[in-house]
Amino acid sequence: MNMPILSAAPLRLVGCGILRKEIDYLIQKNGWNVETRYLHSALHNYFDRLHKELDRELTLAERDGKHSVVFYGACHPRMDQLMASHHTGRTQGQNCIVMLLGYQRFMEELGKGAYFLLEDWALTWEPMITEAFGSNLAVVREIFHSSHTCIAAVRTPCSTDFTAAAEAAARFIDLPLVWLETDLSHLEAVLAEAIVEQSKQDAGG
Q1: Are 18 and 73 in contact (CB under 8 A)?
Q2: pLDDT of 205 above 70
Q3: Average pLDDT over the chain, rounded to whole?
Q4: 127 vs 19, 110, 122, 175, CA distance in Å?
Q5: Is the pTM above the cut of 0.85?
Q6: Banded pLDDT at 4 (limits 50, 70, 90)
Q7: Per-residue pLDDT for 196 more than 70?
Q8: In sequence order, what are the residues at sequence separation of 6 or more whose Cβ sits closer than 8 angstroms to the Cβ of residue 14?
Q9: Which segment of 11-20, 44-53, 174-183 scores lowest on mean pLDDT?
Q10: Please, are residues 79 and 90 in contact by the beta-carbon 8 Å criterion?
Q11: Cβ distance 11 to 67 under 8 Å?
Q12: pLDDT tens digits for 43-58?
């Protein structure tokens, strides 16, 4: 999916670090003229912090004279208003899993009751979950059991072996673990579209 570089100046991608390895790989593979700034992957649990940190990064990009594009889904209720205030755009998709798996597969697995687990979350699971939902394990499990029937751990070509971490995460919330394998074709298409569209806008096209 090689595409022409539309500007000599690099575009700054600001986004969630949950798929940083995959994004960095695709940038290098395609020769995209894009630099990256990643935020912590658990910020979607904290609306105020997410808005504040994303706003700060986009402001820094402006101060540095950089055009930006955002790798986030609808992870904040005012996400699109924030994009508009900085005259930038974001990748199209409800969340990072949709962008990675594609909408159809996402909905199929969601219909089975899946809670999607990526490597970065698996490796920080227990502290991330207890910080967000508290340390009462019965309450935490009730939260997950109320809307999910399994944990679906998602492996990409960039994943390391996080089997032990995924198994520990599933035990922690007492849900069965299943594995999903995916390539990067959907993510690549989403990123390419966002980069091209933002570059065109920045060029006045």
Answers
A1: no
A2: no
A3: 92
A4: 20, 25, 10, 18
A5: yes
A6: very low
A7: yes
A8: 36, 37, 38, 39, 54, 57, 58, 61, 68, 69, 70, 71
A9: 44-53
A10: yes
A11: yes
A12: 888 889 999 999 999 9
Structure tokens at 43: 């910020």
Cα distances (Å, whole numbers) of residue 86 to 14, 134, 180: 12, 35, 36
User: Distance between CA atoms of 189 and 185, rounded to whole angstroms?
Assistant: 6
Q: Can you tell me whether residue 16 is helix, strand or coil?
A: strand
Tokens of 114: 């899946």
How many other CB atoms are found less than 10 A from the CB of residue 195?
Answer: 23
pLDDT digits (tens, 9 = 90+) for 68-111: 999 999 888 899 999 999 999 999 999 999 999 999 999 999 99
- Structural domains in the chain, sorted by start: 11-96+184-202 (3.40.50.510), 102-181 (no CATH)
Under DSSP, is residue 113 helix (H, G, I), strand (E, B) or coil? coil
Cα separation, 101 vs 106, in Å, equals 6
Strand order through the sheet with 89-90: 34-39, 11-16, 68-71, 89-90
Report the candidate in 84, 5, 90, 3 with the shortest Cα–Cα distance to residue 39.
90
Helices (H), the chain: 20-30, 47-63, 79-85, 96-101, 103-111, 119-123, 125-133, 137-145, 163-173, 185-202
